[in-house]
UniProtKB/TrEMBL annotation:
It is found in: Cell membrane. One of its GO terms (cellular component) is plasma membrane. It comes from the Bacteria. Pfam families: BPD_transp_1. It is a multi-pass membrane protein. This is ABC transporter permease. It comes from Kaistia nematophila. SUPFAM superfamilies: MetI-like.
Length: 286
């Protein structure tokens, strides 16, 4: 029964044009990020002193910046940075937040109260403000920005995991395992975590988009990667000063990179939620 439902969900995903568009955008960004050094011969820090602020052309499809650096090479390198930070944030948030959620869900009232008050304290700060505070406290840079974003994502996973665990642990098959004397580790690994996978998968896609957008935001205000590091947010900030003088490409292309990455992540999250949730309105209609 469960396998049949999963197969139906996968077929619905495959028939979804928005999901296909999200996959296409994500695949192009990932391929560009991974294969960039082989697809394009110029490096992100290579300077062409004879062509500063050159408009897009065959030699430089996305133009050059004020120092003659190729924007396409910097765009592809920025994609690697943004996608890598997004993956690290999702992994760290899932592990730390998921562990806190599981502990709160099965640890009893006292453990639940202590852990969730800690999560509430973190969630009391707007995520961007918390990421900014951590970055400033640890020192401005790409690594500290990633740490700040990861910390701000922990409450997202912890609360969702706790809610799922509290719901699943009262189901008959879990209570039957407890009555049969199954160890807690087996119950968690065999029954609880597998049933939280659909919810966590959707959350991972959503947080991935949040991480890319927040990293770009920190870079834009000067708290993330610093020029000449080719990060999209820092590139937008560097290009804004030339926007009024006609060099539109400097801020446009990294901005499009952020936009496409966030759209792809949000589309994936929305479509996965619809496909994997049998109670969604769309699935009820079908």
């Amino acid at each position: 029964m469960k396998r049949a439902w999963v197969g139906t969900a996968l077929r619905r995903i495959g028939d979804d044009k928005a999901f296909a568009l999200a996959i296409l955008i994500a695949a192009l960004l990932v391929l560009g990020a991974l294969l960039g050094p082989w697809l394009w011969p110029l490096g992100p820090l290579d300077m062409d002193f004879g062509a500063p602020l050159a408009a897009p052309s065959l030699a430089h499809p996305m133009g050059t910046d004020s120092n003659g650096r190729d924007v396409l090479a910097r765009f592809l390198s920025g994609a690697r940075i943004s996608l890598a930070v997004g993956a690290v944030v999702v992994l760290a948030g899932l592990i730390v937040g998921g562990a806190i959620g599981v502990a709160a869900g099965i640890g009893g009232r006292a453990v639940d109260t202590v852990l969730m008050r800690i999560i509430d304290a973190l969630a009391a700060f707007p995520p961007l403000i918390l990421a900014m505070a951590v970055t400033v406290g640890l020192g401005v840079g790409l690594g500290t920005a990633a740490i700040g974003i990861a910390l701000s994502s922990v409450p997202f996973f912890a609360r969702l995991m706790r809610g799922d665990i509290l719901k699943i642990r009262t189901m008959p098959f879990v209570e039957a395992s407890v009555a049969m004397g199954a160890k807690r580790g087996r119950i968690i690994g065999r029954h609880l975590l597998p049933h939280t996978a659909p919810t966590m998968l959707v959350q991972c896609a959503s947080v991935f988009g949040y991480a890319i957008l927040t990293l770009a935001g920190l870079g834009f205000i000067g708290l993330g990667a610093q020029i000449p590091e080719p990060e999209w947010g820092a590139m937008i900030t560097d290009g804004m000063q030339y926007a009024l003088t006609g060099q539109w490409w400097l801020a446009l292309f990294p901005g499009l990179g952020v936009l496409l990455a966030v759209i792809a992540a949000n589309l994936l999250a929305d479509r996965l939620e619809e496909a994997l949730n049998p109670r969604s309105a769309r699935n009820q209609v079908r």
